[in-house]
Design goal:
This protein is mainly α and 581 residues long. Helix content is 58%, strand content 2%.
Amino acid sequence: MASLAQNNSRRLSIAMERTGQWIFSQDIPADVVVEVGEANFSLHKFMLVAKSNRIRQLILESDKPDLTRINLSDIPGGPETFEKAAKFCYGVNFEITVHNVAALRCAAEYLQMTDKYCDNNLSGRTEDFLTQVALSSLSGAIVVLKSCEGLTPMAEDLKIVQRCVEVVTSKVTIEANFPSRAPTNWWTEELSILDIEFFGRVIKSMKQRASKTLTVSSAIVTYAERWLRDLIRDHSGAGTKALDSDDSDVRVHQRELIQSIVALLPSEKAALPINFLCCLLRSATFVKASTAAKNELEKRISAILEHVTVDDLLVLSFTYDGERLFDLESVRRIISGFVEREKSVAVFNAGDFREVCSAAMLRVAKTVDAYLGEIATCTELSISKFNGIAVLVPKGARKVDDDLYRAVDIYLKAHPNLDEIEREKVCSVMDALKLSYEARLHASQNKRLPVQIVLHALYYDQLKLRSGEEENETQIDAASTRNQVQADVSLAKENEALRTELLKMKMYISDIKKSGGGAGASAATTSSGKGGGGPRKPTFFSSVSKKLGKLNPFKNGSKDTSNIDDCVDVTKPRRRRFSIS
């Protein structure tokens, strides 16, 4: 009890020392103690009652004849704000600033220090400062809005938050269009001091005012880099490395922050840099954000995948220390979404996606092949995951498979313990016939490749040499190749139909001869069948057959394999006879 009394006495003496400097006269003893949290203020009733109607009502309505203690712990702004309000009651000058004006305005409303009760009271003074000073500039409005974070709901009821949001939105729009100082995006740094709730209200207000997408996205990027610095800007994850639990306060805060930022992203496809989206997705996966937030980011990246770089995809794939693979499923879904969208566009344009690919698809194919070459060195990368990403790109999007061959070779080098069947599975994603001359030359001497792939490369070069064609460094257009093959097939069918018709005619004439011919014809036939007699006299039908046979384009066979389609197996060519004789 003695120690408690000493603590109370010490706390009272501190409060008296704190207030003794600005009380008019210490000759008059204090008659009331105002409790605000852990702070006690020894004051005079008559000075407080003159300005505050709330304190007056508490004294009048008290059951005690002489009220000596008043508890005002729920006053907005806490002890510091009450101290300034008490100074105002005593007529002591103090400075009203953009940092304390919102709290003083709320405290004045709480204490009922209005002009209705007393002329030129604290409520009117703070309101004038808000209107004339604080909300006259962008920086001032942002600081006032920041100070309202601990003043809700009273700051909301007094429309202070709403007024600040409207002023900030208006002035940001003007500043973005007509910068007043350098750097031109200085306002984004100041806007990022807000918590996510008030920042979100500003962004929504900017969208309603039809602010430029670039203005909105610039503010969001700066805000995310400030509050998620370790996860996005520094790429280190230092702020969360020491966290063992996913339910820690820091992790929960980061998770909620990322989900709120994703909800604020503008709807336009190219609104945000793809590098930022990739970093944000990696952060969302790391802190285990909601599935909806991750799906939204994946869709946005997929929509502008033609602008992605290998480094962007690697950001998604590796942990922050870069030592192990992190998330390949997101990359697979992103690429798959882009390919499906390209297919839909091709179908809508009445085109054939297998034959003609857009320039965006060609760029993505090249980036994916380079990306596979980077992740192929990871020993924990399975064949199914490697092939699963490689086969997402349509074959028509690769003019040559050199980049893919490089990725396959790196994978085989990083996984030397694969057997023949496993190596064949890895190599199944590429087409040996679509390699350039240099790549085929390298493949023919590559001991890591399966024997079948090496034979493909060697045999294809042999066929090219036998056909007498010069090596073309670029892959032949797929459409012309398919048209040539279709023309050859059509000609073969016509040749076969003509041969059938001629056989029918010969059989028909033979039947006529048998039924109406004499013994001479029969003897001639027998002699001819035994191989006796002189030279055989040519008939009309045999001469026609020989002439038509000269028109056969397949008579001498074709050794040109440069136009063979992917579906034709040139490793085991068949000899076909198309003669009609």
